[in-house]
Amino acid sequence: MASRRRAIQSRRWSSVSSASSESSDELFVEARSSPLREGEEGEEEEAAPPAEGRWARMLPELLGEIVKRVEAGGEKWPLRKDVVSCACVCRRWREITRGIVRSPLESGRITFPASLKQPGPRDSPIQCFIKRNKKNSTFYLYLGLTQTFMDKGKFLLAARRFRNGAHTEYIISLDADDLSQGSKAYMGKLRSDFLGTKFTIYDSRPPYDGAKAASSRASRRFASKQISPQVSSSNFEVGQVSYKFNLLKSRGPRRMHCTLQCPSTQEIAEDDSMKSKGQNPGGSVVLRNKAPRWHEHLQCWCLNFHGRVTVASVKNFQLVAITDPSQPWGIGDGDTVLLQFGKVGDDVFTMDYRQPLSAFQAFAICLTSFGTKFACE
User: Fold this and answer.
1) Are 366 and 130 in contact (CB under 8 A)?
2) Half-sphere exposure (CA, 13 Å, Cβ side) for 330?
3) How many CA atoms lie within 13 A of 138 on its CB side?
4) Which of the four pLDDT bands, split at 50, 70 and 90, describes residue 324?
5) Where is the Tubby C-terminal domain (predicted)?
6) Phi, psi dihedral angles at 307 (to 5 degrees)
7) Smallest Cα–Cα separation from 301: which of 311, 291, 292?
8) Nearest alpha carbon to residue 119 among 289, 209, 238
9) What are phi and psi of 288, to 5 degrees?
């Protein structure tokens, strides 16, 4: 029996050494994971499902090392697409890749679509820009790859403005060509009141297990006959943005007030465990626009955008957290800019955000700035 087992092992090693068209590491993995033939004795190795292919049978340690090197070598797009390609090989590769690639909060990089709804870094903002198409009322969010405003960027999100009765809605999608509420790429929406001074942000996914979907007819995504089992059929309110009325028409910029559901730094790590218990892992953060100063020489209101905004516009703004020592984020100093938005061209605007905001939330807030607001200006 022992001699038969050694003979079987010898045949395996000989097949590894004789092959020349493939690498030895790959063949070694394939030889170890292949089961014994029927009638042969010995301890069988568990074979991977046939649908996964031989790439899924790679040793976890070797696979993890490969993904780590690919991730380390792709600091920015387009090199970063190699990390996404690794996650697309099969389910096993996807799980290992997701375990290695860090969130924007830790790495300052956006990799997967899930990153768009995760908080940005704390120390330095993620720099993006928005392109507007006035002809079809569409807005495109790109990740900035360089410091120049001529950068083509990496596409992240798209939004289109619709008129829904007396209200205006912005549908936000991962697909620039499919901006419908019934799409699988649907991420959420923004809805305004009649005057365009109060907005509600809706997420397509519940922010936590047990969250209640908005019950009004206007907040429903689409008719029941259009619902797909793979797509959430509800909208969940995650924030509000309001502009203060300027009844006296006094000189000055728009005044904004935002209330958002955002997880704290500690709660992000505990998110999964709290979701399993049906608890709300997040809290709320209150933001307001940073007050500008009046420049006597230029005779205008000024804010320091540190070179990221080059064109004066009533749409430009900077948001800071209202000072509150009880906030778990530790950012309510009233001075740290969490989101800034400003014009750099006829239809190009920069958008820089950081913790606790996500790219989705920041994009939704910036969309509220478009459009004329007679009651506020």
Assistant:
1) yes
2) 5
3) 13
4) low
5) 116-372
6) 80, 0
7) 292
8) 238
9) -140, 160
CA distance 337 to 124: 10
Cβ atoms of 164 and 171 within 8 Å: the answer is: no
Look at the chain and count its residues.
Answer: 377
* CB contact at 8 A, 222 and 181: yes
- The neighbour count for residue 366, using CB atoms within 10 Å, is 27
Residue whose token pair is 């740290």: 336
The CATH number assigned to the domain with range 117-367 reads 3.20.90.10
- Looking only at the bridges linking them, the beta strands covering 300-302 and 154-164 are unpaired
DSSP 190-208: EEE-TTS-EEEEEESS-SS
Percent helix, strand, coil in the chain (nearest 5)? 25, 25, 50
**Helices 91-100 and 60-73, interaxial angle, to 10°?**
60
Instruction: State the Rg of the chain over Cα.
Output: 26
pTM across the whole model: 0.75
Angstrom distance (rounded) from CA 361 to CA 233: 20
Tens-place pLDDT, residues 254-266 = 788 999 987 654 4
- Tell me which DSSP letter residue 125 carries: P
